[in-house]
Specification:
Blueprint (H helix, E strand, L loop, with lengths): L6 E2 L5 E4 L2 E14 L6 E4 L3 E2 L4 E8 L16 E6 L2 E7 L15 H5 L2
Antiparallel strand pairs: 1-5, 2-3, 2-7, 3-4, 3-6, 7-8
Protein name: GTP-eEF1A C-terminal domain-containing protein
Keywords: Elongation factor, GTP-binding, Nucleotide-binding, Protein biosynthesis
GO molecular function: GTP binding; translation elongation factor activity
Length: about 110
Amino acid sequence: MNHPGQISNDYAPVLDCHTSHIAVKFAEIQTKIDRRSGKELKKEPKFLKNGDAGLIMMVPTKPMVVETFSEYPPLGRFAVRDVRQTVAVGVIKAVEKKDPTGAKVTKAAQKNK
């Protein structure tokens, strides 16, 4: 991470993943981890600062297609951009898929039926 300040829960940067550029919200900083070994250093830290690494639950503001890094590496990498610079990079460890049956039906879609 290379951010001029601290990053805490509810931080809202732009996530660049393959061709998507979508705002996300850092819902929960789950753990602070060692950058080299990947071992957990602290559970549920209040914030991350410059040079730290962590496992973070992110929620996109719009629908977004991503894959886990272990399953498909080209679609599993991302960059976090804020203050006109790249502040963090990482890989997607897990994806929680939304239920496709919960889609909204708009009036325009109903007219075309």
